[in-house]
Structure formats: C-alpha cells, structure tokens
Amino acid sequence: MKILLVGASGTIGQAVEANLKSNHEVISANYANGDVKVDLGNPESIRNMFEVVGHVDAVISTAGVAAFAGFDDLTDIDYQTALNNKLMGQINLLRLGKSFINEGGSITLTSGVLSREPMHGSAVISMANGALESFVKAAALEVDNFRVNVVAPVFVKETMAMMGMDTESGLSANDTAKAYMAAVTGKMHGQTLDAPDYL
C-alpha cells in the first residue's frame, strides 16, 4: 500500500512507520521535515500536501497539538490551538483528503484515552479527543468508498520516561503502533480503537 503518515517524526509516528515500511510505501509528512511538510492548523497546507502526494491507499495521522494545563491556566489561545490543530486539522485530513483515498482505503486519526478518562490538566485535550471520536462515528455513516477510524492511545512509556513519570501504566510506542496497523489492515469503520486492545 501507499500510505501517507502525518506526524511521522513523533514518538508514535516513528513506531508506526517502523512497523509499516517493510511491507508498504510510507510517505512521511511533518511540520518541519519529512517527504512532505504540512501544517495541520492550516487547511491550505493540507490541500497542498495532498496535491503533492496524490492518491494513496491510506492516511494515518499521529499528529495534533493541544496544551496540557490546569483549567484556570488555559488561555483563549490554548483552546483555539487545540480546536484548529488537533481537532480541525485531523478532520480536514478527511474533508480535504477524501478524494485522494483509493477505493477500499482508509483514514486513521488519533484521539487519546483522555477523552473518556480525563485527569487534572487535560480539559483541552479531552475536549478535542472526545469531539474527534464523535466526528469519526458520524462521518463514517456517510463515507462508503473507504474506511475511517480513530486510535485512542494511552500514555506512551517513552514520553512518560522523558517527563520523569512512572511508566508502569503506559504502553510502548511499538505496542501502540499495533492499533494503527489493525486500523489500516482491518475491516473496522467508524470505530475508536483503544490501543491496549490490540496487543
């Protein structure tokens, strides 16, 4: 398959690419580097990316920016960034990319466990994740020539270690990548795939 991987330079993105590249052609897209550059917060940048890349069998997004901060510390910009980037950026991959997906292909987006298991500091992230999961469920009712799903990772061990957190409750990036592999190769449509279910 020809697969466009948005957010390929991130911790999860690198693991997804490593799992895909032996059997598939992977085109990496990132904000600052990769085979093609894209700014998820800019619809024109997303349009340009698809024009450059052309038709693909699958799009995977492991990207999306949202602030982690206490409720009283969140600014207007924090909310707008999460809405423009993590939410609308990924929604626009479907809206603007749908005519570039080959028949029977797929688009896989990324939410996160904080949509259903929020914690202190996660208000903006939980908002974007929950909205994205609802969007995918609804959009799938009207998309019939390819599949659309969303993967909900838990905290990634590598990121937790970097932040000095206990990694016991986390999942490695490589194990997290298995849910993305399942979304690309499986038959599910309109689903939220919880990463730990695909170990």
Entry keywords:
199 residues; 19% strand; 6 helices; alpha/beta
What average pLDDT do the residues reach? 97
Quick one: how many beta strands? 7
User: β content, as a range?
Assistant: 15-25%
- Choose one word for the global shape: globular
Query: Strand order of the main beta sheet, please?
Result: 3-2-1-4-5-6-7
Structure description:
With 199 residues, the chain is α/β, with parallel strands linked by helices. It contains six helices and seven strands. 40% of the residues lie in helices and 19% in strands. The longest helix is centred in the middle third of the chain and has 22 residues. Helix 1 crosses helix 6, helix 2 runs parallel beside helix 3 and helix 3 runs parallel beside helix 4. Helix 4 links the parallel strand 5 and strand 6. The radius of gyration is 16 Å and the shape is globular. It has a seven-stranded parallel sheet, sandwiched between helices. The mean pLDDT is 97. The two termini are 23 Å apart.
Topology:
Blueprint: E1 2-6, H1 11-20, E2 25-30, E3 36-37, H2 43-53, E4 56-61, H3 76-97, E5 101-110, H4 123-139, E6 147-152, H5 157-162, H6 173-185, E7 192-194
Parallel strand pairs: 1-2, 1-4, 2-3, 4-5, 5-6, 6-7
